[in-house]
Design a protein that fits this description.
19 helices
Length: about 500
């Protein structure tokens, strides 16, 4: 048996009876990170008024988190490989709790923005470490399906949970509690991880690739900031264009450097394997569609339908229920029987069908007749697709690469979320402006003008959702064409037969 195979086998046995306890704390940490991406959204108007943040600067409360998180994820994944996954995970949790305390106690704009950037930086440490721990602790195909079913449900539904929790905390307590609520999450997860998780084998102790860290961080920050700036300043803005050009140059230089150095930050073998490449690409596209939809539905329910923050949060419950069902009852049960593409592709198409229903939204649309079935379909589809995607993204990776492979999953999600919010919001805004221009002349009274404004907003949302439907169809196409891995049960036998004949090759759990 090869050294890697032995390491993998040792990794699978090391946690033993504690691995399911460990999953509890890993899942808790992942929930905290994912819900934090949306929990602040509902609290933002209150925080803005309380701290005197200008309209021009309020976006930085969201952007500072996204930039630090998205830009540092690859670095965080590599740190987990070098320093140890457990140590990185616990450090990330403690740092996240401290940054959250700072944000909740913020007395001015700079303090709040600084705390959000720190949250993103520590999130970039703990998120890849969490997924990496799962990847190396759960190697049995059936156990892996259950573990990633739970993880996938949290990764998919955490954003919607954040909207509910954010609504409750803002309406009944104070916006500061959207920060303080992270502290008990982080403390419990860190304490549990410290006492329960044992550091798995297979660390990569190669020297850190400093040029790779600098190029990847600057390239990803430029990309995320470019899309964020496009939302506020427009696609033709010279600074926006410059950021996209800089991002392309920096990321191209990063790929070139990674192909030459002995110990790369991102070994190209991680992303050039067609199954993982297909997962990263299709997952990123699905997140683009999904995060934009969260934004539109939140505004539609609160502004057009007049829902309170709490009622808006509860309106997302069917989507969460659908995601949990799709992930744990469909994805986890079928992952060992069907190839991943036959879960991911149809899952994205079912989600696209849910979004297609939402293109029919009007001012007076019924929640029960239109939004409820649409959210259920969207949740079921995304949950079914997310579970095998999360598992496949780290399946067959050498233990020494598990941290950076996990970071790529989170990077595709974070970058996809930033792109989706900016891209779809820009499309919606343009359609809204055009609608008002075409219809405002016929509105002679104030009530008529207000009606036109509401109709214009809904028109903008539905236009953008059409694009989201197309993006999900493309994601399904990529899943069907790029991903050719068989079911884990079927490929395990192939792995065993190849293991003895190819001593220097990793245990091949992905069949072609």
């Amino acid at each position: 048996m090869s050294e890697t195979a032995q390491a993998t086998a040792g990794t699978a046995q090391a946690p033993d009876s504690n691995r399911w306890k460990a999953l509890t704390f890993i899942a808790l940490a992942q929930l905290m990170v994912v819900l934090d991406a949306t929990i602040v959204n509902i609290a933002l108007p209150s925080a803005q008024q309380d701290l005197g943040i200008s309209d021009g600067n309020r976006q930085w409360v969201i952007t500072a988190y996204a930039l630090a998180f998205g830009g540092l994820l690859l670095f965080g994944g590599r740190i987990a490989d070098i320093w140890g996954r457990k140590r990185t995970f616990v450090t990330g949790l403690i740092g996240f709790a401290g940054a959250s305390a700072l944000g909740g106690a913020a007395t001015n704009e700079a303090m709040l923005l600084g705390s959000r950037a720190l949250q993103g930086a520590f999130g970039a440490l703990l998120a890849p470490a969490a997924l990496s721990l799962l990847a190396v602790m759960f190697t049995d195909s059936k156990e892996r399906a259950k573990a990633f079913g739970i993880y996938g449900a949290i990764a998919g539904g955490g954003g919607a949970v954040g909207l509910i929790l954010g609504g409750f905390l803002t309406e009944y307590l104070d916006w500061r509690w959207t920060f303080f609520v992270n502290i008990p999450f982080a403390v419990v997860a860190a304490a549990g991880a410290y006492f329960v998780i044992r550091e798995p084998a297979g660390r990569n102790r190669s020297p850190l690739d400093i040029p790779g860290v600098v190029l990847s961080t600057l390239g990803l920050v430029s990309l995320v900031y470019g899309f964020t700036r496009a939302e506020s300043e427009g696609w033709g803005d010279s600074m926006t264009i410059g950021l996209f050009v800089a991002s392309a140059v920096l990321l191209a230089a990063f790929v070139f450097v990674e192909s030459k150095v002995k110990a790369p930050l991102l070994p190209l073998r991680v992303i050039t394997e067609r199954n993982r490449g297909g997962v990263y690409l299709s997952l990123g596209l699905a997140i683009i569609a999904m995060f934009g939809l969260f934004l539109f539905l939140t505004y539609y329910l609160q502004i057009v339908k007049g829902y309170s923050p709490v009622k808006t949060g509860f309106a997302f419950l069917p989507m969460i229920a659908g995601m949990i069902t799709g992930s744990t009852q469909i994805g986890a049960r079928l992952m060992n029987r069907l190839p991943a593409r036959l879960l991911m592709g149809p899952g994205f198409l079912v989600a696209a069908a849910g979004m297609l229903l939402l293109t029919q939204m009007e001012i007076g649309s019924s929640y029960a007749a239109l939004l409820l079935p649409a959210m259920l379909l969207l949740g079921l589809g995304m949950g079914t697709a997310f579970m095998p995607a999360m598992s496949l993204a780290t399946l067959g990776v050498e233990p020494r690469d598990s941290g950076v492979a996990s970071a790529m999953v989170n990077t595709s999600q974070q970058v996809g979320g930033a792109i989706g919010t900016a891209l779809l919001n820009t499309i919606a805004a343009s359609a809204t402006t055009a609608y008002v221009k075409d219809h405002i002349a016929g509105a002679t009274t104030q009530p008529q003008q207000q009606l036109v404004q509401l109709q214009a907003q809904v028109h903008g949302y539905t236009n953008a959702i059409w694009f989201a439907v197309g993006i999900l169809v493309v994601a399904a196409g990529i899943a069907f064409t790029f991903i050719n891995a068989g079911s884990p049960d079927a490929t395990a036998a192939a792995a065993g037969s190849l293991e003895d004949t190819e001593d220097d090759v990793k245990v091949p759990v992905i069949a072609h």
